[in-house]
Design a protein that fits this description.
Layout: H1 2-17, E1 25-29, E2 40-46, E3 55-63, E4 69-80, E5 89-100, E6 103-113, E7 117-125, E8 131-132, E9 138-147, E10 149-153, E11 162-168, E12 174-178, E13 185-189, H2 197-227
Antiparallel strand pairs: 1-13, 2-3, 2-10, 3-9, 3-11, 4-7, 4-8, 4-10, 4-13, 5-6, 5-9, 11-12
Length: 232
C-alpha cells in the first residue's frame, strides 16, 4: 500500500507540474504594422438616407484560435464616434460570440465604452475569461447603443472575399462576404493547469498499477490468514 501511495503521489505531482508556463498567448492576429493605413467598416447608429428609417448596424468578423486558452483580451483599431452628425450620444459595444454555422451564435462576453476614441487600438480585457478552443470558429462584433457610430479599420494590403456577418436592430444575423476584413488581435491566457495527454496516460497507468498491487496485497493477506487458521 505504501508503494501504491508513493506512485499516486508522484503522478499527481507530475500532472500539476505539467501545467503550461507561458501567458498572454496570441490566439489570432490580423493587425499590421499600421492598423489605420487602410479602409474601415462603419458600424453603429445609421441615420440613413432621407426618408429611410434610422437603424443600428452590428458587424462581426470570424476568427479561429491557434491554440486552446482562456480568453484574456481583444484589441481593435477603432475610431468612435465617427461623424459630426452623430455626436456620440451613446456607447460603443464589443461582443464575443461562439459560432452558429456561418453567423454568430451564443454570446460569450460583452464590453462597453462611452469615451470617444481617436484612431486608437483599444484593448478590452476579459472578466469572464471563457475558454476558447483551438480550431473552433468565434465571432467578434462592433456595434453601439444610442446615437453613436464608429469605424472598425480593415486589414491592410489583403483582399478577400472575407466572411463577415451583419445584423440590423433586432433582426437575425445575416452572413456576408466583403473585400476587406476587420483587423483585430485576440489574446489568451494559457496558464491554467490543464493536464497534457502524456500526463493523463501516466495517471491511468499509475491507477492500474496501484489497483493490481492492492489486489495482490489483499490476496497475500487472505492466503496468510488461511494458512494460520487451524481449522483450514
Amino acid at each position: 500500500m505504501a508503494a501504491s501511495r508513493a506512485t499516486l503521489s508522484f503522478l499527481v505531482a507530475t500532472i500539476v507540474m505539467a501545467a503550461p508556463a507561458a501567458a498572454d498567448t496570441i490566439l489570432f492576429n490580423s493587425l499590421g504594422s499600421d492598423p489605420f493605413a487602410g479602409t474601415a467598416t462603419v458600424f453603429g447608429f445609421n441615420l440613413g438616407e432621407e426618408g429611410d428609417p434610422d437603424r443600428h448596424v452590428g458587424v462581426a468578423y470570424p476568427f479561429v484560435p491557434s491554440s486552446t486558452a482562456r480568453f484574456r483580451s481583444a484589441e481593435l483599431p477603432l475610431f468612435f464616434p465617427c461623424c459630426d452628425s452623430l455626436p456620440g450620444q451613446g456607447s460603443l459595444v464589443i461582443n464575443l460570440f461562439d459560432a452558429d454555422g456561418n453567423v454568430p451564435g451564443r454570446l460569450l462576453e460583452s464590453f462597453m465604452r462611452t469615451e470617444a476614441i481617436e484612431l486608437e487600438v483599444v484593448s478590452f480585457r476579459s472578466a469572464l475569461q471563457p475558454l476558447l478552443m483551438a480550431g473552433k470558429t468565434y465571432f467578434l462584433e462592433a456595434t453601439s447603443v444610442g446615437i453613436a457610430a464608429g469605424f472598425w479599420h480593415n486589414v491592410v494590403g489583403v483582399e478577400g472575399p472575407f466572411q463577415s456577418a451583419r445584423r440590423v436592430d433586432s433582426a437575425p444575423w445575416e452572413a456576408h462576404t466583403q473585400k476587406f476584413a476587420g483587423g483585430f488581435r485576440i489574446i489568451g491566457d494559457d496558464t491554467a493547469p490543464v493536464p497534457e495527454p502524456t500526463s493523463l496516460v501516466l495517471l491511468g497507468t499509475g491507477l492500474a498499477v496501484a489497483g493490481v498491487r492492492r489486489r495482490l496485497s489483499q490476496r497475500a493477506r487472505a492466503v496468510t490468514g488461511t494458512a494460520s487458521d487451524p481449522n483450514a
